[in-house]
Amino acid sequence: MTIATDRQIAYIESLVAKRDFPAAATLDVKALTKDQASNWINKLVRAPFKPVATPVAAGVAGPHPLDDIEVSAYAVPTAGLQIPGHVFRGDLAFFEVRMYKGHKFLNILTGAPGDFNRTRVRAPGALSGLAAVIGGRHVEYARLFGEHFTCCGRCKAPLTDQRSRELFLGPDCRKIWGL
């Protein structure tokens, strides 16, 4: 009977700190054999992560910078546009605001339609700055996206009728935006 190695013990302790597995709370890792340690590692690796609390400034959650921005694709002029860690080339920068599990996310789009590369914008200052640029002009920037890629500026779908091709917004997306 061989006792668990220091490496196994350290790994189990790190897993217990990160994983939600109540049975491991009273575990004495120094008394485990190698086989028992391996079994615990297998159990802990499969356990879900403990929930992480998000810090709230001064105890009050403020509005998210993207709350007032519509879910859509956007082509925004690059003049004066600054996002830390990203250099824009050309006259337009392409973005999308997407909704996932009740949260809005902003991505920078590069590449071609149908095969866009997406880079998540996470910096709060950049989100606020871009939200200020897009705010109130979402239809204009969505149409500019549609014009550039010859698709619906809101959902990126192909345009099938003449009116949609003139406005660069499909009929369903025009209804959603009340146009």
Task: Write structural notes for this entry.
This protein has a four-stranded antiparallel β-sheet with strand order 1-2-3-4. The model is unreliable at 55-60 (pLDDT under 50). The N and C termini lie far apart (75 Å). The protein has two domains: 6-46, no CATH class; 72-176, no CATH class. With 179 residues, the chain is of the alpha+beta class. The chain has helices at residues 6-18, 34-46, 124-134, 138-149, 162-167, 171-176; strands at 72-77, 92-100, 103-110, 117-121.
Topology:
Blueprint: H1 6-18, H2 34-46, E1 72-77, E2 92-100, E3 103-110, E4 117-121, H3 124-134, H4 138-149, H5 162-167, H6 171-176
Antiparallel strand pairs: 1-2, 2-3, 3-4
Q: Give a quick account of the main beta sheet: strands, pairing sense, barrel closure.
A: 4 strands, antiparallel
Kindly state the mean pLDDT as a whole number?
A: 81
Summed up, the helix count is 6
- Please state roughly what percent of the residues sit in beta strands, choosing from under 5%, 5-15%, 15-25%, 25-35%, 35-45% or over 45%: 15-25%
Which spans of ≥5 residues are poorly predicted at pLDDT below 50? 55-60
Estimated radius of gyration: 24 Å
Give the overall shape.
Answer: elongated
For the record, give the distance between the C-alpha atoms at the N and C termini, rounded to a whole number.
75 Å
The number of distinct structural domains comes to 2
- Find the count of extended strands (DSSP E, 2+ residues): 4
Q: List SSEs in N-to-C order.
A: HHEEEEHHHH
The class by helix and strand makeup works out as alpha+beta
User: Level of helix content?
Assistant: 25-40%
Please give the order of strands in the largest beta sheet. Answer: 1-2-3-4
